[in-house]
Write a structure and sequence with these properties.
It comes from Microvirga subterranea. Keywords: Lyase, Pyridoxal phosphate. Its cofactor is pyridoxal 5'-phosphate. This is Diaminopropionate ammonia-lyase. The chain is an alpha/beta fold and about 400 residues long. It folds into two domains: about 1-75 and about 200-400, Rossmann fold (3-Layer(aba) Sandwich), CATH 3.40.50.1100; about 80-190, Rossmann fold (3-Layer(aba) Sandwich), CATH 3.40.50. It contains 17 helices and eleven strands. The strands form two sheets. It has a seven-stranded mixed β-sheet with strand order 1-10-9-8-11-3-2, sandwiched between helices. A four-stranded parallel β-sheet has the order 6-5-4-7, with helices on both faces.
């Protein structure tokens, strides 16, 4: 399904706070922070020429966040960045002077961090980023995971020394429980979703994501005409769409937000014209996107800068994983997790349907940007769905590049 943006705020300017948070100057500062990370390197941008020809579009480029900061997901840019910012701000408050990221490992800053605990709820990737950020600065982390989070993803977070807390129910239940326990314990919640009265920290998380858009624009031969980005609570889609709109202005691409059909909280919010919480149904294979209530900040942004909203089915997501792992022609193989290839799944769906293709203006001149938001963050699940291990896919890519 596809739904054009019909909100009254569509194409209106962003709120000043959102423009400041997600604009060029903010992204430049995020990149400066990244230079102080030991394992930082820009993630690759893959060109899929054979795939573009098969879909009847001019070019397809995939920004591959499976290589981001050793965590295998774009989320590495958000939670850890927010943790670092919050530690530096608290250090500045206590020391009575500005504290720059260059001082992150100074003894007086580490002493401040040692007294802080950062909490969040997660489907897997955001919690890993918060835990890594806390370990990096010498703070503690308490990560809340709901019943659907696999043991493999829990273990991947726990290796950073985080306290793991299981919560019955859905992701939204774990968000509520993290907020409740953190308030009682005096912990700082670093959430990638927002609610009334809690907007600044999710804004910092979204700000972290702008670095990958800035990288992609440098790597692309020309700005994209179309961008498909998947949504959970909407944070990454809002960050990407807002940054592109602010930086490219009238040259901004057509921006399509993509939801799992079984957890389409952004799609249903767009249909209603206001934030709505949807019912919890059958779980989706797109586990990192299984969210039932949108982030208020993300929706505020998307209501202005998203052009259309789509949903994809379970089989679409798995087919996308397989097609990226077994590419056509000389295209590189890409390891995309269950949620990583959802933007590609939507593009495939749209390009294969003449009415959808026409509605989005997709043609032989279209230049598509997609984001592989995660690699195989649960290798066992990836192997089960694709029929080949992520290591074997990576080996095939290395062989093709040799």
């Amino acid at each position: 399904m596809i739904l054009p943006n019909q909100h009254p705020d569509y194409r209106r300017p962003l709120y000043p706070v959102d423009a400041d948070t997600l604009g060029a100057a903010a992204a430049e500062e995020v990149e400066r922070y990244l230079t102080y990370r030991d394992n930082h390197a820009p993630t690759p941008l893959h060109m899929l020429q054979a795939l573009a020809a098969g879909l009847g579009v001019g070019a397809i480029h995939v920004k591959d966040e499976g290589f981001r900061l050793g965590l295998g997901s774009f989320k590495a840019l958000g939670g850890s960045y927010a943790v670092i910012r919050l530690v530096l701000e608290e250090a500045a408050r206590r020391l009575g002077r500005p504290v720059d990221v260059a001082e992150l490992h100074a003894p007086e800053v580490r002493a401040v961090a040692a007294g802080m605990t950062f909490a969040c709820a997660t489907d897997g990737n955001h919690g890993r980023s918060v835990a890594q950020g806390a370990q990096l600065v010498g703070a503690r982390a308490a990560i809340f995971v709901h019943a659907g989070v696999s043991d493999g993803r829990v273990a991947a977070i726990a290796r950073f020394g985080a306290k793991m807390i299981r919560v019955e129910g859905t992701y939204d239940d774990s968000v509520a429980e993290a907020a409740r326990v953190a308030a009682e314990a005096g912990w700082t919640v670093v959430s990638d979703t927002s609610w009334p009265g809690y907007e600044r920290i999710p804004g910092l998380v979204m700000q972290g994501y702008t670095a990958m858009v800035r990288e992609a624009l440098r790597q692309l031969p020309e700005p994209p005409t179309h961008v498909f980005v998947q949504a959970g609570v909407g944070g990454v889609a809002a960050a990407v769409a807002a940054h592109l709109a602010l930086v490219l202005g009238d040259r901004r691409p057509v921006f399509v937000v993509v939801d799992p059909a079984r957890a389409a909280c952004i799609y249903e919010t767009a249909r209603a014209g206001r934030p709505v919480k949807i019912g919890h149904g059958e779980p989706t294979v797109m586990a990192m996107l299984e969210c039932y209530e949108p982030s208020l900040v993300a929706w505020r942004v998307l209501s202005r800068v998203a052009d259309a909203f789509m949903t994809v089915d379970e089989e679409d997501a798995v087919a996308a994983m397989k097609r990226l792992a077994y590419p056509a022609g000389n295209d590189p193989a890409i390891v995309a997790g269950e949620s990583g290839g959802v933007g590609f799944a939507a593009l495939s769906k749209a390009a294969s349907d003449p009415s959808l293709k026409a509605a989005l203006g997709l043609d032989a001149a279209s230049r598509i940007l997609l984001i592989n938001t995660e690699g195989a963050t649960d290798p066992a699940r990836y192997t089960e769905l694709v029929g080949i291990s992520p290591a074997e896919v990576a080996a095939r890519r290395r062989g093709a590049d040799a």
